[in-house]
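Request: Have a read of the protein record below and say how the chain folds.
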Amino acid sequence: MITGAPDDAESLAVGALEWLMKAARDVDGGAAWPDTPADDRVTPELYRGTSGVLLALLDAWWYFDDDRYADMALRGARSVADAVGNWEDSGLHTGVAGMAVALRGVHRVLGDTAAGASADRALDVLRARYDGAGWNDYFELMAGNAGIALAALECGDLDLAQLAVGRYARAAEPTTAGVQWEIRAGAVPRLHHMSHGTLGIVYALAAVGQAADRPDLVDLAVAGAADIVSRDEAGPDGFLVAHSDPQQQHEKIERHSYGWCHGPAGDAQAFRLLTRVLPDDPAWPALADRCWHTVLHSGIPRRTRPGFWDNNGRCCGTAGVLALACDRQVEHGDGRDFADVLVADLKARATTDADGVRWSNFEHRETPGDLAPATGWAMGNAGIVRELLRHARITGDRAPQYAVPLPDHPPTA
């Protein structure tokens, strides 16, 4: 078996951080990142911009104790803070809520009070934008009210988190097994997984319900999870649920996925959280185990056919699966071998030169198929760096946590 040793993970992370540092743009004395180095526009968001890079820099400083990373994080925090009042999107991965998480992280890890004050201001912006029901028409985690609830919870604002989940009971649609929600008002397909579907909402309801001692929210989360469990097509050992019903019609969407966004690598995170919230119910850890079984037997990370497993990133690709493998290593002792395989695959797919290390995702329908390497959390180096450093920490018997946890990923027990 080809493996990716801890020193491979560390050296890849060092090279990727060098590439990220070189991709930074100077913005009024601060630093900001575009989605790809060729883009003219920088963005403060978590999904594809500066806030996601900040989290990687904080992990790097925590791991290496190298002040270059802390200094760059502080510069990045200034540019994010400057964008808080003008960024129109409010979501976790796409807007002000994610910016608040990144700024609060800089405050907590580096002790920067200016970043903490800016995180407070971001929460004030969110409160001012609340219209009595939410911030937009989206119910899902990435851009919608569920993600905003999780950001508020991570930043210590339980009242705002409860406001954010207030409309889910009214909007729940009964199904034969439980309940489901629209991705946004008027959308026809019902999506099922973490990024845009029912399980992302389940995660937010369970997290806020536990923190606020709200059994009604936890019960609603369980009803949403029950709907998803009823759709499983891989039992009794595995767990695999379709992307959407009716199937969303788009040439790039397959019926089944395996990553964090629309597959069992992400589904397992919702079931891990429910295990914490409802520790006396053995169904939840069993479902997390079934997700893991399906991931292990899926063929990942081999490119078994055109279009299968062409993404290296945290949202839809290898880094997101590595996050689950690291969780398994800490909590069950059974994730190390597969984590090594994933690191070896990242090593094989990396571009390494004088500029550092970076990854290009692949689009098999285009020629050439290699996409521009990205900087951010979702599809780019920042998200990959965090998982590589965590793998190196765990295998080196260091703390298994991230410097700043994402609010949609339960910490390991």
Q: What stands out?
A: The chain has a mean pLDDT of 96. The first strand starts at residue 25 and ends at 27. The radius of gyration is 20 Å.
